[in-house]
Design a protein that fits this description.
Blueprint: H1 3-7, H2 9-12, H3 17-69, H4 75-82, E1 87-91, H5 103-116, E2 123-129, E3 132-139, E4 145-150, H6 161-196, H7 213-259, H8 265-290, E5 299-302, H9 303-316, E6 321-325, E7 330-333, H10 335-353, E8 356-362, E9 368-373, H11 408-418, E10 422-427, E11 433-439
Parallel strand pairs: 6-8
Antiparallel strand pairs: 1-4, 2-3, 3-4, 5-7, 8-9, 9-11, 10-11
Length: about 450
């Protein structure tokens, strides 16, 4: 696998558009919240530092002046009053240390020295770095030593309610995002369902034209396109049915005339050709009529009994058709259309595989799946979809005994779609073909 293929966003993004939009917005919101937290802490740090520097220099200057004017015996009583959260005064020279190590400590020392003036001989030293602690030494006018010990505080802690507010804000934004994404994705889902429900008879559900202007315009355009396609398909099927129907009369006349000829090889050839023409005409008419299979009224019947009746009909005429297994229970189906679909599939299985095996089951979603299997030569994988198209045959010959008319599977496919189902072909392990009709 190439590096570029691994880095392609399609590999790690979710498959649905809604999930992708959710993920992108969620990541964006989390990054925005993280940036907000970072800016907030930086602002608090900068504000706390500025406040401390502006406050410390004045308070320390005032405190040093007060202690300098007090008698030496009273100074110890005032140390507690002048103590703050981040510094305190000590009488004496304090602890020995090293030169100031941070810019902030040097800035504090410079400001204090500028505030109290040169008369106090200000000196500053670092006592420790973990945690940071430094001392500023003063020499009072009576010669005694005074030490200011500073322990800088970090960023003030955030209020307990702030994380809760930010979390509620994130939840609110995600809820609004979910609603917005749902409103955007819903028309696409409706468009997909309407497209899947399209039939040549145009009796499928129309797409709702309500909603925002853009959605309504797309729905109107889709419904118009759907009507034009349905009208075109109807016209095509009507032309095919008309031509096929009108050909039956001259074919019948030709057959009558051919049968009146003297016995001979030419007469037999003409009759065989007419037989093939009649079969092709009947298939054409059947294909045209298959688009209207959904007009049949559904009836509730037992699936197992229906399949047993179909299989027994084939067995009565000596066809090698068996029922392997079947689910029971009543199901709402269009019986005549389903019988025609399964009949075409069984005919194909018997013709090319010598026998047919019928079975049924329920999918995990509850759909009815009826399979017709054989042990024939199968179909090349790259032609499994093409053989469902009208007049397509695996063999190149137009001989009825080898390639047929090319309409059997097309009729089964269109009729299955007309009754709301789907037909799928697949090659079996060990050889043969499996045709599966799925009815919701």
């Amino acid at each position: 696998m190439s590096r570029s293929a691994f880095l392609t966003p399609e590999r790690w993004l979710p498959r649905s558009m809604a999930s992708r939009v959710y993920l992108i917005i969620l990541v964006g919101l989390m990054l925005a919240q993280g940036l907000s937290f970072a800016l907030m802490f930086y602002e608090r740090y900068d504000s706390a530092t500025t406040t401390m520097l502006n406050t410390v220099e004045h308070e320390v200057g005032t405190s040093v002046a007060v202690l300098d004017r007090l008698p030496a015996a009273e100074r110890a009583d005032w140390l507690g009053r002048l103590q703050r959260d981040n510094y305190r005064f000590l009488l004496g020279q304090g602890q020995p240390g090293t030169p100031l190590a941070t810019e902030r400590s040097r800035e504090v020392a410079r400001r204090i020295e500028a505030e109290v003036g040169p008369d106090y001989h200000v000196q500053a030293e670092t006592i420790s770095m973990a945690p940071e602690r430094y001392q500023v030494h003063f020499t009072l006018h009576d010669g005694s030593s005074l030490t200011l010990e500073v322990a800088p505080r970090g960023v003030p802690p955030v209020a307990q309610w702030l994380p809760i507010v930010l979390a509620l804000q994130l939840v609110l934004l995600l809820a609004c995002t979910w609603l917005a994404v749902r409103l955007v994705v819903r028309p696409l889902a409706q468009l997909a369902r309407a497209s899947e429900a399209m039939t040549p008879t145009a009796d499928g559900p129309r797409m709702s034209e309500a909603g925002p202007v853009e959605v309504a315009q797309a729905a109107v355009a889709f419904n118009l396109m759907r009507e034009r396609i349905a009208r075109h398909l109807k016209e095509r099927l009507h032309i095919l049915a008309s031509i096929s129907h009108d050909l039956q009369t001259p074919i019948t006349r030709m057959r009558l005339r051919a049968e009146s000829l003297d016995e001979g090889e030419e007469r037999e050839k003409i009759l065989r050709d007419l037989h093939e023409m009649e079969h092709l005409v009947r298939e054409g008419v059947a294909y045209a009529r298959s688009a209207h299979g959904g007009a049949e009224t559904p009836v509730r019947m037992d699936v197992k009994a229906f399949l047993e009746s179909l299989v027994f009909d084939y067995q009565d005429v000596g066809k090698a058709v068996t029922l392997a297994e079947s689910v029971g229970g009543a199901t709402l189906v269009r019986a005549q259309a389903l019988r025609r679909v399964l009949g075409n599939l069984i005919d194909n299985a018997v013709k090319y595989g010598g026998s047919a095996e019928v079975s049924s089951r329920r999918s995990e979603e509850g759909a009815l799946c009826i399979a017709v299997c054989d042990r024939g030569p199968g179909i090349p994988e790259d032609q499994l979809d093409q053989v469902l198209q009208p007049f397509y045959r695996v063999e190149g010959s137009r001989n009825r005994d080898t390639g047929g008319a090319g309409l059997g599977l097309a009729i089964a496919t269109q009729l299955t779609r007309a009754i709301g189902g789907s037909l799928q072909l697949s090659n079996r392990q060990g050889g043969g073909l499996a045709a599966i009709v799925t009815l919701p």
